Amino acid sequence: MRRGFYIGRFQPYHNGHQAVLEEIAKWSDEIVIGIGSAQLSHTLENPFTAGERVLMITRALQSLDCPFYVIPIEDIRRNAIWVAHVRSMTPPFDVVYSSNPLVMQLFHEAGMTVTSPDMYERATHSGREIRRRMLSGDEWQNLVPHAVTDVIDEIGGVRRLQQIAGTDE
Amino acid sequence: MRRGFYIGRFQPYHNGHQAVLEEIAKWSDEIVIGIGSAQLSHTLENPFTAGERVLMITRALQSLDCPFYVIPIEDIRRNAIWVAHVRSMTPPFDVVYSSNPLVMQLFHEAGMTVTSPDMYERATHSGREIRRRMLSGDEWQNLVPHAVTDVIDEIGGVRRLQQIAGTDE
Amino acid sequence: MRRGFYIGRFQPYHNGHQAVLEEIAKWSDEIVIGIGSAQLSHTLENPFTAGERVLMITRALQSLDCPFYVIPIEDIRRNAIWVAHVRSMTPPFDVVYSSNPLVMQLFHEAGMTVTSPDMYERATHSGREIRRRMLSGDEWQNLVPHAVTDVIDEIGGVRRLQQIAGTDE
Amino acid sequence: MRRGFYIGRFQPYHNGHQAVLEEIAKWSDEIVIGIGSAQLSHTLENPFTAGERVLMITRALQSLDCPFYVIPIEDIRRNAIWVAHVRSMTPPFDVVYSSNPLVMQLFHEAGMTVTSPDMYERATHSGREIRRRMLSGDEWQNLVPHAVTDVIDEIGGVRRLQQIAGTDE
Amino acid sequence: MRRGFYIGRFQPYHNGHQAVLEEIAKWSDEIVIGIGSAQLSHTLENPFTAGERVLMITRALQSLDCPFYVIPIEDIRRNAIWVAHVRSMTPPFDVVYSSNPLVMQLFHEAGMTVTSPDMYERATHSGREIRRRMLSGDEWQNLVPHAVTDVIDEIGGVRRLQQIAGTDE
Amino acid sequence: MRRGFYIGRFQPYHNGHQAVLEEIAKWSDEIVIGIGSAQLSHTLENPFTAGERVLMITRALQSLDCPFYVIPIEDIRRNAIWVAHVRSMTPPFDVVYSSNPLVMQLFHEAGMTVTSPDMYERATHSGREIRRRMLSGDEWQNLVPHAVTDVIDEIGGVRRLQQIAGTDE
After folding, report:
1. Closest-CA distance of chain E to residue B61, Å
2. Which residues on neighbouring strands pair with residue B32, listed in sequence order?
3. Which of B39, D65, D76, D105 has the fewest CB atoms in 10 Å of its CB?
4. Which chains lie within 8 Å of chain E at 3 or more CB pairs, if any?
5. Peptide bond before E12: cis, by omega within 30 degrees of 0?
6. B contacts of D112 (beta carbons < 8 Å)
7. Among B130-134, D84-88, E1-5, F164-168, which stretch is predicted with the lowest mean pLDDT?
């Protein structure tokens, strides 16, 4: 049994995440997906709740050919104990897939195997870019799985983001 | 879409929980399972980590004929905001299934529909009884799904509980 | 200007508190009333929210001939810094009125003047006794000001307490 | 009974707040005033303690023709549960008066009525501008009620702010 | 370089702790002494502050022939991350000396070497027994190093404990 | 007995700190050294854990002719209670040595004596400058005591900082 771990804030979950997870699925028997900063929502950087992000990810991966767990992880604001915190909230995993330098360093110091997945069209496929487009009214739907568009529509996610930004014209 | 919510500490997950969830599955399109006191582990009342409990539940429900989410929920130690906390961590749900008087009252005050499922052989099928049997070396395996026995064996769960109790003979 | 400080959990506010505050009013230009354990509610020991307790106290003291402040104080769970915490949340005060040994000791170590008010019919006029009567269905209304009975009725306070206790016959 | 809610950080309380509250008083039987970020003080953005702010507000509103409550509200750093937190600390209210986009959105998602009061000479009547004047030694007293000047003088508020800024010439 | 780790609450530090540390000193180049529950004080179980306990230990060990560190460790209330928390606050250590079943289990699960030191006259040499004697006015001074008696006298420790207990005759 | 208090984040401990402490040693019988933001590590501003900083300081001061305590102090994020927090974690002290405006103001408001030590070649001897040099690969070793270089080498501190910065070429 080989279980891989992948963590992100998924604000929102997009095609770049999807591409990475499809890649990880090839090498894993099971995947644990951690939703970071789970306690944050309704900010410009973190508009969606953990529950909304659980929904986006689960629906978008419905046809993934690999069992997966989606686990909200609240911030603990202490890097030195963050790995222990993550591990207490998740089924045990063998490999960490991450391109985040801090995440890589923390798992490396904890003695775990860390692998950097290839990024998928990173310039456009980033949460920051997608949130920017939502705010400015640009097309963002083509950057996320259909299921994610549906979830964001249902919860009025774009309207929420614009309202928070105080630019709700 | 009718989504039901069920919460417990699952220390450990047992046949009583399984029976309730199989009942809830008949009435729901999807089930959200909250793991309460997710941050606790390695105590006499809460021996298992959230990640270990995620594993028990997911494996035991592998053949359940209803999609489900398993979400660790850390305690927030403030009853008046607990429902909002739970809802921020979970996909939206319509019905709460619970027999816990406090949980029922808190969701009721929040204006949600609460239903009490029938309990399954409650005297023996309780976490407290199972932990008691683990400590005293009695048979407990017949009270939990096979998958749970496997998880507890893998992590040395009985040994951990006995060691914590200082009764490790 | 002589400002007195009085703190309690007020679960609920009763005639004993009222008698003490009427006494303190004689010696003070203003009174600061701290609501302790403000973050707790919906438990057997602490059934009412801070906001509900603010309402009870303010209404019951409506005709007190001394200006007063009612300030919710969340627990900080560290006795050595509790006095500094209280003082940061309240207008400055000169005298502490308390019969609680820990409160007295903490303010004493901080170099403040502490005075023990006479207690009013303490055996019956205690939050514990009133909550016990609410649970068992006994008469409790005669132990609290009329305004408090009204608030508890409005919020369904007795029903809430009984439900939490799981003894709601 | 119609109770309105108004929240701010009040660093410090100024004539703009006063004008808004006088307006709200016309439409309300009672007003609940929440002091946000109550736990913060002694910073450039938040120089005054909650207790000092309680004092400023209470004194400045002494002749307001509407009963009011002044309630310190500590930050909870989780937007999704902030409304529940506020409501647990305050008497129940019917209308929220706010011009803050995040506050408006959070109460709106909670299903409450939110109204935007007219702002009073906003360019000069802002906490930021008043703190800037305090730091640079400019006239700020004309922007706040007299009672607020008195409180700030008593506690050495301007000196505190300048000292924290390290520009205490 | 062989560094040993020893942790206790030291409420108060007594001859039993001293005997264990003198034993550990024989096997170590340096000792790290962790003061557990550092944030607690002024309770019946935890009367002394972390700073007071630092003072007791440092003075009592003044002539120990082994360099040592005394580090207050605040509780983190999550067993699964407690070892990581301890290690982030202390210089790295190789061996854990403990007789506490939970401490032993947590370090064991983290893959560290744990050794149980012999206890010294455990029945009388326990914090609980010493605090009991302080409360009842019995002789306790013979159970602690002289330096500890001095510290407790300076801070009025017995008076504090009796006052908290409400039995200050 | 005259005990002085000195606090810093020591990220890392450098010759400027050493010079100040040697000066304080002349005026003190004992020194209490507080390690601020003890819970932080693995960030660009705070790369080292509290335990690593304890090690740096203790080794660098090995030949100081004045007994000293090194105490990690976790942030409490509330300035108004920070002094009480510090005092609960440390042996009692009489004089505070600090050049930090906020630290000076907070101890001043608490009624304590605060003295500003002369700074030693401040432009180069700052944690910020040393971390900048570590990141850019410049010479930094001449700005810290030898013992600190050793500790940073042992833990791979420069590599950690570069990795976190994502500039690890």
Report:
1. 26
2. B5, B69
3. D65
4. A, B, C, F
5. yes
6. none
7. F164-168
Contact D101 A164 (CB under 8 A): yes
Top-confidence residue, C134 or E119? C134
Shortest Cα distance from E8 to chain B (angstroms)? 17
pLDDT confidence of residue B167: 52
Question: Scanning every residue of chain B, which has its alpha carbon at the shortest distance from the alpha carbon of A51?
Answer: B90
Domain C3-164 has CATH 1.20.1730.10: no
E-chain CB neighbours of F72 within 8 Å are 71-72, 89
Name the DSSP class of D163.
H
- Say how far apart CA E32 and CA E7 lie, in whole Å: 8
CB count in 10 Å sphere of residue A29: 12
**Inter-residue contact A105 to A16 (CB < 8 Å):** no
**Which positions in chain A have a beta carbon within 8 angstroms of at least one beta carbon in chain B?**
38-39, 41, 49-52, 54-55, 58, 69-72, 74, 87-92
> Shortest Cα distance from F79 to chain D (angstroms)?
6
- Note whether F touches D: 3 CB pairs or more under 8 A: yes
pLDDT of residue F169 exceeding 50: no
Q: Which of D69, D84, D79, D75 is nearest to D41 (CA)?
A: D75
* CA separation for the pair D21, D16 (Å, rounded): 9
Among C54, C70, C87, select the one facing D51 at the smallest CB separation: C87
Grouping H, G, I as helix, E, B as strand and the rest as coil, residue C115 is strand
> How far apart, in Å, are the Cα atoms of E12 and each of B141, C1, E18?
44, 43, 11
- Give how far the C-alpha of residue B92 lies from the chain's centroid of Cα atoms, to the nearest Å: 19
Measured between beta carbons, the chain A residues lying within 8 angstroms of E81 are: 76, 81, 84-85, 88
Q: Using the predicted structure, report yes or no on whether residue B120 has a pLDDT greater than 70.
A: no
User: Under a CB-based contact definition with an 8 Å cutoff, are residues B14 and B127 in contact?
Assistant: yes
CATH superfamily of E3-163: HUPs (3.40.50.620)
Q: Which residue has the tokens 């850390």?
A: B74
Computed over every residue of chain B, the mean pLDDT equals: 95
Contact by Cβ (8 Å): D135, D126? no
* Averaged pLDDT of chain E: 94
8 Å CB contact of C54 and D91: yes
Q: d(Cα E98, Cα A115) in Å, to the nearest integer?
A: 37
CB contact set of F16 (below 8 Å; sequence gap of 6+): F119, F120, F121, F122, F125, F126
- ipTM field: 0.95
Q: What is the pLDDT of residues A59-110, one digit of tens each?
A: 999 999 999 999 999 999 999 999 999 999 999 999 999 989 999 999 999 9
Q: What burial class does residue F111 get, using C-beta atoms within 10 Å of its C-beta: 0-12 exposed, 13-18 middle, 19+ buried? A: exposed
Candidate from F77, F78, F105 with C-beta closest to D164: F105
- pLDDT tens digits along D70-126: 999 999 999 999 999 999 999 999 999 998 999 999 999 999 999 998 766 777 789
Nearest-Cα distance to chain B for C158, in Å, is 12
CA–CA dist A99, F166 (Å, integer): 10
Q: What's the pLDDT tens digit per position in F94-134?
A: 999 998 999 999 999 999 999 998 766 777 789 999 999 99
Ranges assigned E (strand) in E66-133: 68-72, 95-97, 113-115
What integer pLDDT is reported at residue D120 of this predicted model? 67
- Nearest chain F Cα to A80, which residue? F41
CB contact under 8 A, D76 and B81: yes
Q: Which residue of A has its CA nearest to F47?
A: A79
Taking contacts as CB-CB distances below 8 angstroms, the residues of chain E near F90 are 50-51, 54
Is-contact A49 A89, C-beta < 8 A? no
User: Tens digit of pLDDT for each residue in E28-67?
Assistant: 999 999 999 999 999 999 999 999 999 999 999 999 999 9
